[in-house]
Amino acid sequence: MRVDEVQPHTPFVVKDYWSSDAPFRFALARQFSQSKQGKEYWPELSKRLEEFSLKVEREARPLAKLCDRPNQEPRLVQFNEWGQRIDSVETSEGWRGLLQWQMANGIVSESYPAQGQEDSVNNHNISAGGRDRLGEIARMYNFARTLIFTPDSQVAVCPTSMTDGAARVLELYGTSSQKQKYLPKLFGRTPDKFWLSGQWMTEVAGGSDVSMTETVAEPLISRSPGQKAQPGDLYIVNGFKWFSSAADGNMTLALARTDSDRAKGSKGLSLFLIPLHKKDRAPIPTNTKYTDQTAPTSKYNGIKVHRLKNKLGTKHVPTAELEICGAVAELIGEEGRGVAQIAQVLNITRTYCISASTCSIGVALQILQDYANRRKVGVHGQAETLLKDLPLHNTLIAKVAIHYRAMLQLHLNITRLLGKNEAKTTTEAEERRLRLLTPVGKAFGAVRASDCLAQSIECLGGQGYMHETILTTALRDDFVSRIWEGTPSVLSLDVVRVHAQTKGAALIEWLQDSAQSLQRSNDQLQNTLGQDDVLTKTVSTLRDTLREMKTVYLNEKAFKTASGTDMRLARPLLDSIAIVECGCQLLNQAAWSTQTEMQHGNAKLELQIASRWVCGPEGGLAIVRNTMRDLAQGKMDVDTERHIA
Ligand code: UCC
Ligand code: FAD
After folding, report:
1. What kind of architecture, by CATH, is found in domain 488-644?
2. What are phi and psi of 297, to 5 degrees?
3. Predicted complex ipTM
4. Which atom, in ligand 2's list, is nearest to the CA of 317?
């Protein structure tokens, strides 16, 4: 055969997210249907989401493509041609375009009250109006937009998530002058107005455990004995931050030690707002001994950029190692409350991670389904068969599809609760639920997304392994969610902490509510489908798991052994909450389908999906339960594991 007779491959097509993704639309419709505001605004907001999705395809996707050209990664120019130190972080046109695009489209500002923001937020042709119009559904609506945009963002949502978190911290703990000065910048929609914020926690000594923080902050003006620090006071910060992912931003929230007594651990840490550039820092009173150790030619406020990280993925995000040498900073909130305050950033950025994990599975699924309809393979030398007609292949696609449905449920439920919390309509129990589910969703989503992406690459064969087919980049980019914002192990310890701090209430309420929700879904589905073996098995498996979790975790001996504490039960706790929560929500979705007149009202299919998630290999519940049981019964000896490891 001549080369020009060889048939080329048929490429897959990635369409706009909203119109091509029925599971997303229906899962969102159900979440909106749970509140009065949601029901009222759904017709308008679903239309807006449809338009936004087309806008992403039309405007953001070409910017993302610009980043894919050669040599577009950020670079650090430490010295100019005259030998002067400038520390300039240079990013590409595509990246800057994406940052501007998302700010112009209100990825941060649409979740906040419109008051004090630019006119565009109050013009409902451009904006849905933010929290003071949409109330508790503003956050969920905006996360739906984020989910649509993220696959075309080249991870530009990373600095945006930190900016969003910084806005939330200022809203909660900022002084009125800090709010007035900084919030309009974080909500800015035009290139000359918007500010990006970073989040500086990690140091060489302490990443997971920030109590090891070595960076110190000292008051710029010495205080007289007994004089207390006031929010907004100026400090000078010195130290070294090992990972800083918005090196091209305008400000950061940073943890620094204000109490030299190391024994106080993280209670000796305070939170600071550091403007990155000299031009933006507070004027320094003349009677102070302050010296800025950066070169006069550097634009940075007492910061030297040592290096840009050479990473596996997130290649366009400039992540830097920074020496802080005399940065002028403002205290946020109370001295010594740094961790509790920056935790509000973590809760927002972790939700962005859940969103990114969810939509990366969603895009992979779209690709797999489209490719399976185009790619023909030979089977034993017989006529060519489309991949979609091979059951062996469909099992793989089904696994990704089931994960996507499960993650959508988890993610949207968390954003619904977050929106309620921000609109101050949560009950105390809902606040505990949100606190419990956020680390669960972040850790579980990160692990499952990278598994699904790896399998999706396999599903495309050799084409999947090529950079151009997106999935390799998605895998490299999303893999970082297993590390930044806390590794799964560290987040499982956070779940245990929530359990302890709420004296078991968060878990008890979750167990009870899950059991009640199961009963409701079961009744509703039975009314429509009659007695159904699939339903019975799914519900009884979930009920058994809830009972088992209660036995293992709701007793004083949980995590205790004869020789001390065994935290290995933390991971099965996190995983079982995630799997059961998804299972219950999937059943809710199936039950909801029986009631709606929307075309998709395919309760039987939704039930099959819930059942595969709970009882089949996809959710992995059986494995998690086995591990939980073995650990609780002392069958996995710590010393043996240590020897093996
Ligand atoms: O990685 C980073 C940024 C990367 C870029 C992000 C982009 C994401 C978007 C992606 C989209 C594509 S920044 C570095 C992130 N670092 C971590 O996540 C560190 C992981 N470690 C933890 O999460 C730990 O649990 C710590 C550091 C939060 C806990 O430290 P401590 O010192 O042990 O603190 P405690 O004692 O547990 O908590 C201190 C206080 C307590 O309140 P009080 O004092 O009132 O009792 C806790 O209840 O903080 C409170 N607290 C929280 N409150 C702790 N965690 C939370 C929380 N999550 N929510 C509310
Ligand atoms: P370590 O804490 O050293 O963890 C090593 C291993 O030990 C992990 O597997 C962890 O699970 C395990 N481990 C730790 N403690 C325990 C424990 N108690 N029990 C059991 N296992 C444990 N940080 C910022 O502050 N700002 C940023 O902008 C930022 N950007 C980042 C960008 C990228 C691309 C990356 C990769 C990281 C970034 N980080 C940032 C840092 C990130 O948050 C940390 O890397 C992360 O929190 C882990 O900390 P570490 O690297 O010190 O790992």
Report:
1. Up-down Bundle (1.20)
2. -80, -10
3. 0.99
4. 34
Query: Quick one: which atom of ligand 1 is closest to the CA of 201?
Result: 14
**pTM of structure:** 0.97
Q: Which long-range contacts (CB under 8 A, 24 or more apart) does 512-521 make?
A: 513/433, 514/542, 514/546, 514/580, 514/581, 514/584, 515/543, 515/546, 517/584, 517/587, 517/588, 518/542, 518/543, 518/584, 518/587, 520/588, 520/591, 521/584, 521/587, 521/588, 521/590, 521/591
Residue 11 banded pLDDT, cuts 50, 70, 90: confident
User: 197-339: what fold?
Assistant: Butyryl-CoA Dehydrogenase, subunit A; domain 2 (2.40.110)
Task: Identify any residues that bridge with 307 across adjacent strands, giving them in sequence order.
Answer: 321
Pick from 145, 148, 210, 316 the residue to mutate for probing ligand 1's pocket: most ligand atoms within 8 Å of its CB.
Answer: 210
| Residue among 227, 221, 215 nearest 266 (CA) | 215
CA 366 to chain centroid, in Å, comes to 21
Q: Is ligand 2 within 6 A of the CB of residue 200?
A: yes
Task: Sketch the domain layout of the chain as residue ranges.
Answer: 18-186, 197-339, 341-405+424-482, 488-644
- Over residues 361-401, the pLDDT tens digits come to 999 999 999 999 999 888 777 778 999 999 999 999 999 99
Find the mean pLDDT for residues 73-85. Answer: 96
